[in-house]
């Protein structure tokens, strides 16, 4: 990827989240700093027969309690859990950005770019069991209205009357990161003035069963980069970022969390589930993002790793980081927040991008919890000693997905001159 010569700066002016350790941004910051684990027993479905019964579930979730912008009870009935997670996070992010409700004069120029995964599969699963029990006469097929992953973006656009670009990416675990990169491009190309972007993912039985069948889950809880790691802990949640041009943000006196500096997308062309052991695709994604951001590798202060805690992924990512940063790799803090919020698949890149922005804005580096015995092949600084009160200026966030779908996004601290030029 060549450097993007478009000089328009794209900033983040609002954030919102629902995940296993928080229902809102303020709580999320405290939980990240405190190294809180959201991994515990699954209650949303029966895990009997699975390798594990744990995951990072959002407990006691009531979207109407999070925001006055959540729809009425009638419309909630026609929304999936994934839709509701996304809607709650979006309402918080828009309020945070000072765009709640979105004013009529920019609705035609406001877009929704999301990363998705399971979508309404949990609702389809419930309908299937109802069908087996009661037959077609006892089933309300309207429950399938939000089956598809694109449903969340559709509901957000409809609820807030938005008529700009609307797209949902489904590139497995890199979906949310890809959405952020594409949203940045839309602002830069003047295709939109405001973009709601991020990702959403619910826990679903079929996904849980699939990862169990792959033996890719840890029977207890995930331990990224640990010698004794056995796999992921599945999670759920939503992360939303509000993007707009710096010019528009300054004009209205908005709070600015940081900038989206660049991103890179590559493919391994290696295997449907396993990463390339040489990490060539991952390394190219990181290099492309650095070039797109217009910086050198020396400028990266922190890497929010993909860090799934599978035996192959953690080693491959470590190798990719070393390939890009050479000797500098040992001096850059690296951590995996999946150790706290689990692997949220379609929402992972968004939640980790959001974490990267919060690390810059609030001046800290989140830890990798559960890491007690480092893998000799994973020998970087994985921040296993708790959160650090060190404010990164430029953060690189990795998302490496099934199918070899690699996306890296780079976020920077907002300065008047521009962190890239300092």
Which CATH top level class of the largest domain fits?
Alpha Beta
Q: Helical content, roughly?
A: 25-40%
Shape: globular
CATH fourth-tier homologous superfamily of the largest domain: Thiolase/Chalcone synthase
**Domains (count):** 2
Strand percentage lies at 15-25%
CATH topology of the largest domain: Peroxisomal Thiolase, Chain A, domain 1
How is the quaternary structure best described?
A: single chain
SSE sequence, one letter per element: EEHEEHHEHHEHEHEHEHEHEHHEE
Instruction: Show unreliable segments.
Output: none
Number of strands: 13
What can you see in these coordinates?
The chain has 422 residues and is α/β, with parallel strands linked by helices. It has 2 domains: 242 residues, Peroxisomal Thiolase, Chain A, domain 1, CATH 3.40.47.10; 151 residues, Thiolase/Chalcone synthase (Peroxisomal Thiolase, Chain A, domain 1), CATH 3.40.47.10. It is 31% helix and 18% strand. Strands 1, 2, 5, 6, 7, 8, 9, 10, 11, 12 and 13 form an 11-stranded mixed β-sheet that branches. Helix 3 packs across helix 5 and helix 6 crosses helix 12. The two termini are 23 Å apart. The model has no long low-confidence stretch (mean pLDDT 92).
